[in-house]
Amino acid sequence: MGGLTMDQAFVQAPEHRPKASVAEADGIPVIDISPLFSAAAGDGGRAGVDALAAEGGRGSRDWGFFVVVRHGVPADTVARAAEAQRAFFALPPELRAAVARSEAAPMGYYASEHTKNVRDWKEVFDLVPRQPPPPTAVADGELVFDNKWPDDLPGFREALEEYGEAVEELAFKLLELIARSLGLQPDRLHGFFKDQTTFIRLNHYPPCPSPDLALGVGRHKDAGALTVLYQDHVGGLDVRRRSDGEWVRVTPVPDSFIINVGDIIQVWSNDRYESAEHRVAVNVEKERFSIPFFFNPASYTMVEPLEELVGEESPARYNPYSWGDFFRTRKNSNFKKLDVDNVQIAHFRKT
Ligand SMILES: O=C(O)CCC(=O)C(=O)O
Ligand SMILES: [Fe+2]
């Protein structure tokens, strides 16, 4: 059962508990992005790419979500990562515990994440596909991004390294798509990712005896730039629909990734796009697996609306903030229950 025992720590406030039945999300764009990979995006190709960018832009604006298919990540690569994930969570507890995360070294295994100070019904394993350069001085509370690899799990590291490389390639393509959709040069955002703080999370949601009270992940918005999410066939991801504020289920589409606009893109775009509030419902019978790839810029990035997108007509809506500080504060508050609210981009919104 994954070793979780239902208790008060998991119980959501009544207004945040999932309803017994939830409608399927209808209208999230599903985009075949294969034209992005054909060499000649010039001439005729250019119009096709512009149309894709418009679709991605529509999803980012209306939902904060879109789905991509024919995305260039080989099915075998995804299958190997998903298999490695299952094998890891099937390890005996002591072998999982051997790679446990700590507050200062946040990579590795963890079964006690909190979202907004309520415990999530899940266990995770985090890794970085690329190690960001170490800070010049390890200040108080500085995070150390060293991977912890389990012993006795042949092929685990290789499968995830292969996955990380392939998904990173996709993430840069999507960044290009988003830049185009905002009327920017395709490579406008690439520079922010030179020393990226991207991490990959393996999520395991064991069956839960009280899916009416607990959530796999409580309601939240992803703090980074973009999330490239693999989910298995079980389903449980809910997104809050903009039109009426209802929670709706994102139906699994085979061989797809869900692309999730994060807070940083919301700020860069000066609110043209909005990060989506989402959560994960659990169920009594089935375990569920997902793998978000959190595509995050360098820790020294000062996040602020892009200068091309501000002007007299649309003044900057946010004050600049340090991604490194934001990330560290959020990570630490997910590690344990605190008595203060999570840091949110709303804190940097100009009044
Ligand atoms: O499991 C999922 O589908 C989504 C997980 C998620 O939102 C997260 O880990 O931030
Ligand atoms: Fe998320």
Provide a concise account of the structure shown:
This is Fe2OG dioxygenase domain-containing protein. By secondary structure, the protein is of the alpha+beta class.
Question: What does this protein structure show overall?
Answer:
The structure is a single chain. The protein is α+β, with helices and mostly antiparallel strands. It has a single domain, classed as Sandwich (Jelly Rolls), CATH 2.60.120.330. Helices cover 24% and strands 18% of the residues. It contains six helices and 16 strands. The protein has an eight-stranded mixed β-sheet with strand order 1-2-12-9-14-7-6-3. A four-stranded antiparallel β-sheet has the order 8-13-10-11, with no helix packed on it. A two-stranded antiparallel ribbon has the order 4-5. Helix 1 links the parallel strand 1 and strand 2. Helix 1 crosses helix 4 and helix 2 packs across helix 4. It is globular and about 55 Å long. The N and C termini lie far apart (47 Å). The structure holds 2-oxoglutaric acid and fe (ii) ion (FE2). Belongs to the iron/ascorbate-dependent oxidoreductase family. It holds the Pfam family DIOX_N. It comes from Oryza brachyantha. Keywords: Iron, Metal-binding, Oxidoreductase. Its cofactor is L-ascorbate.
